[in-house]
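new request in #modeling-help
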Amino acid sequence: MWLYILKRLGAAATTLAAASVIIFIFIHLIPGDPLYVLLGDGATPDQVDALRQKLGFDRSLAVQYFSWLSNVLQGDFGQSIFFQTPVLSVIGDGAETSILLASITMVWIILLGIPVGMIAAMRHGSWTDQGLSGLAMLLASVPTFWVGLYLILIFAAWLGWLPSSGYPSIFDDGGLANLQHLLLPSLALAAPNAALILRLTRASMLDVAREDYVRTARAKGIRPWRVVVRHIFRNALLAVVSAFGFTLAALISEAVVTETVFALPGIGRLVVQSILRRDYPVIQGVILITVVLYLGVNLCVDLSYRFLDPRVELE
Amino acid sequence: MLSVEDVTVRLADSFNVVSGVSMRIERGEVVGLVGESGCGKSMTSLAIMGLLPAPQARLQAGSIALDGKDITSLPPYRRVEAGCGGVAMIFQEPMTSLNPVLTIGDQLAEAIRVHDGVSGPALRHRAQELLEMVRMPDAALQLGAYPHELSGGMRQRVVIAIALACRPQVLIADEPTTALDVTVQSQILALIRELCDELSMAVLFITHDLGVVAQLADRVLVMYAGRIVESAPVGTIFREPAHPYTRGLLACLPNPLARGRRLQTIVGQAPRPHEIGDGCAFAARCAYAEDACRSPGADWRQVDGDHGVLCRHPQSGQLVQ
């Protein structure tokens, strides 16, 4: 297994190298110049040239890339052009919001998607099943920002139960109660993903329920819930777990929209703002870290198969 | 001991796959249920087991009793609760009949816990004992094995061990050797025969293979288009079959004395559930059929003491090829 992990890490390094090139090139293809953003429209060409030299933008792209890469490999993601502070600390400021948002969203996805999918599968063909499947279909096809806006309208504007935007840190005044700021965004972010997991859980359980070994289990005389949990669900889980890798990718891109809708000071919004400011080092840093995260989660998903399915050999 | 009365199984499209099947099976007896694919053998066995796949199939009529207790339509777990969980089943496909993510030991333990109510070392001991009963080599070691680590024959032994964990009075074996190669097949057949004698279980052995029936069964039920058309001791069935279908079926067997001649066939095809009319379902393929055969009302006739047939024109005399 360790050999397998090593091999996978090697493959991940290759992916990462390719990703870093693509990120670097694409960002520099975006029209616009960070220097004018920094200096304003009234800057004289001399001022712009001086700053360009200072930031090293006068060098060729290849030179810029390798100097960036060698710094990144040493843990230095550079300075934010806009904030004039290290990129890692800029990202760190948004990390709390984003990590909490992602975690709460994952909890929603697991709590809503899996059990409700199980119920729909067990009541296959009934009104309960049709209602739940229909709702899931609806949620899966509606964009996150739309769900977000409606959640704000209902729970913040009409009912006034929950805050509609912003997020003060849990380390500030209010402590853990500040998490209520993340309730609506996490629900909006979870909705389409939980719906997908629900549909997948349902379909996969219905598939497994037709297997011969489920009939063998029933023939033993064990209780129906035990057949469902130990035989049907346990095997259906294999397909569901693999979907979590993709769900994370979806979460990352949808978080950009959700954080913007709810004005959350997270990494998603940071990316959007950094793109508008042409703050290259920040964009590069965030995307690179995202790629690392994504590769890491998928490695974990693949490793978890080893424990869920004894037939899987990791080589 | 097991008594099945007039069992009718109806499919969701409202055609009967099994119509009015009755049988009695006594302790220590091996009864062979023979018929072509699709004649309702498996549905009969699932109905007896209480495992008809709802909503595709349901028990329309009839009753099933074990030792006088009514177990009709009770799924296995309800039978265990009612104290009559004495019917167990082994299935056709050993490759898919075991849960791939649980060890053999775990899968055996589930059944033992339900039927014996033991746990801990006693549970493990019983699991090992069951694997030894089905002549599993290295029984203690195999408890920790997963199904994919075993061959087809070994897996079928495990399936049998799971069935035995239910301490069955009646064991239903639904074509348990069809998916296995010939040498393994004969080992499994021998094992079932031995277990039947050792544990004085009754066995309902379902197959389409007349050779297997000859080797194993004491009594034979011949099924055609959802009905039992003939019932007789195994010797009688092979010597003096009375139903034209049974005679046709036996005539199709390859005969070493008739080497060089074409194998016989029964003209036509078995009807599908929706094609079965009110009259005799075999009439269309039967050389002896008359107009009366196509109208309803053929009764079960006793040819002799324990030889019965569902036919207006039972044939007599030895079968000649």
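bot summary: The interface with chain B takes residues 125, 211-213, 215-224, 226, 230-231, 234-235, 308-311 of chain A (CB under 8 Å).
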